[in-house]
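Just curious: can you write whichever protein you like plus the matching structure tokens?

***
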Amino acid sequence: MIFRSICAVALCALPTLGLAVTECTGRAIRVWTGDEGTVWVVMDTGANWYVGPSDPDTKNILATVTAALISDRSITVRFSADGASCVGGIRGDVVGMWLHSM
């Protein structure tokens, strides 16, 4: 039983091994959709980012950001770059996002 527990913990940790990313948390305050399918998001923390129309997650991210706006919930967006700034600038290397509970 202990062996199974250790294996379960190790398997959960595998996706995070060597993960060099940056996560920025805040509230989406504006969303622009246009530019032939690009979704632009402005956050209250200054983390401004976009997802292009060729990204397979564009529709899911737009739906999640819309849900966050409607429910006034915070989000955490994950960028592929390690050590990226969460304040100012515009990032296009979004790899996913979290929608937080109230």
